[in-house]
Design a protein that fits this description.
The chain has 118 residues and is of the alpha+beta class. Helix content is 30%, strand content 33%.
């Protein structure tokens, strides 16, 4: 078993409960950590998960769909990736919303979800 991670994927998207979030959008950062069963000691793309295609799937979901809650976005994205990439044994998805509308000083807000075929 091995791990492939795509960290810090940044997108401008329109998720959130507040009307201005839907209208103006904001910056979202996505981390995807994938567990993959590497087949033998091969060196072929067919033996793993194509992280370029994973990026495209993430970008499509994050920028083309709208969710009120980042938790719902994380769940939907995790389900989509598990369905589209059968070589994934498991994954963790984090959706960061560093500019969440909170009255206070903070560095980050994120929601995380996990999936496993086991």
């Amino acid at each position: 078993m091995g791990r492939i991670a795509l960290l810090g994927l940044e997108f401008h998207a329109h998720h959130g409960v507040m009307p201005e979030e839907g209208r103006l959008g904001a910056r979202f950062i996505v981390d995807v950590e994938m567990e993959v069963a590497f087949e033998g000691k091969g060196d072929r793309l067919e033996e793993t998960v194509d992280y370029g295609k994973v990026y495209e799937a993430v970008a499509s979901v994050v920028t083309r769909e709208r969710f009120y809650l980042i938790e719902a976005l994380a769940d939907h994205l995790a389900d989509t990736l598990m369905r589209e990439f059968p070589r994934l044994e498991g994954l963790a998805v984090r959706i960061h919303k560093p500019h969440a509308p909170i009255a206070g000083v903070f560095r980050d807000v994120y929601a995380e979800t996990w999936r496993s075929r086991r």
